[in-house]
Structures are given as C-alpha cells and as structure tokens.
Amino acid sequence: MATIDIDIAYVEKLAELLQRTGLTEIEIGQGDARVRVVRQLAQTIEVQAPAAVAAQPPASPPALSVEPAASELNHPGLLTAPIVGTVYLAPEPGAAPFVTLGQEVREGATVLIIEAMKVMNSIRAHRSGRVTKIFVDNAQPVEFGEPLMIIE
Predict the structure, then answer these.
(1) Complete domains list, the chain, with CATH
(2) Do 116 and 70 meet the contact criterion of CB atoms below 8 Å apart?
(3) What is the pTM of this model?
(4) What angle do CA 142, 146, 149 make, to 5 degrees?
(5) Which of 55, 80, 82, 150 has the most CB atoms in a 10 Å sphere around its CB?
(6) Cα–Cα distance between 107 and 47 in angstroms, integer?
C-alpha cells in the first residue's frame, strides 16, 4: 500500500475554500492520490409553540377540505409543499396543532412541519391572514407543489 505525503497547509486551504464558497465537499486528485475535504453542516430543527388564543364562543369554522377546488389552485393565499415528505400538523404527537381553521397567523409563523429524510422542516406562513382551508391530514405524505392550506 502506497503512503501519501499530506501537506496540512494545503488541506487547510481547501477547508477555507469550502467555507468561503459555501460548498460542502471538494475532492482533488493527482495520479493515484486523492484528498477529499467535507464540511458537515449543522442541522437545526426549529419548533415553535402555537400562539395562545383567547377563548371565544364556538363558531362554525370553514369546513376542512380534502381536495382543493380548481379556483383555489390559483388563490394568492395558497401555501404549497416546498419539498416532498410527510406533513405533521403539530410539533409532536399529542400536542396542539400549529394552526387551526379560522386562526389568524402572521407571516413567518410555523404552520406545519414536513419531514424529509429524517429532517423536520418548519413550513412558515408566506403571508399574514386567517387560515381558511387545510388540505392535508396529519402524517400524510405530500409531493412538491401539493396544496397544503389557504391563508386569506
């Protein structure tokens, strides 16, 4: 087995190049020798508790719709799945959902989670408004671009 003479300064320069460019991996080869430098990104899972809602007399919120109507597919408040994965409407099993029908939300608030490859991705409201339709059920698989909810 051949030994490789490693120039530590060269490896450090490659690591700096990764940092500067935002790349996560670089591999350089010369003859049979190869040097591979990989930068692992820290994965952050962000979960926010739902905002406290003042008790209100029961109202009849809009009905939960499973299939969006054709007119709803072009609605400016339509939130669609940015990735493929499994939808979770609450931060953990048994917890209150992030949002409910009729609830007011602010732009940037977490409205659900999509799990993709064991990573929980917070899906945030793209606008402020009231949640008028929810098209998905908890633990339902979704495809990219699939309608999730409408925020008016």
Answers:
(1) 8-38 (no CATH), 70-151 (2.40.50.100)
(2) no
(3) 0.56
(4) 100
(5) 150
(6) 16
Which region holds residue 31: left if phi is over 0, alpha if psi is between -120 and 50, else beta? left
Q: In whole angstroms, what is the distance from residue 132 CA to residue 135 CA? A: 10
CA dist list (Å): 58 to 18, 29, 55, 97, 133: 56, 68, 9, 18, 18
- pLDDT tens digit string along 19-48? 787 777 777 777 777 777 777 655 555 555
**What is the β-pairing status of strands 78-80 and 85-88?**
unpaired
Residue 129: both structure tokens together: 């408004």
Q: Which residue has the higher pLDDT, 90 or 49?
A: 90
E strands, the chain, where? Answer: 25-30, 33-38, 78-80, 85-88, 104-105, 110-116, 119-124, 129-134, 141-142, 147-151
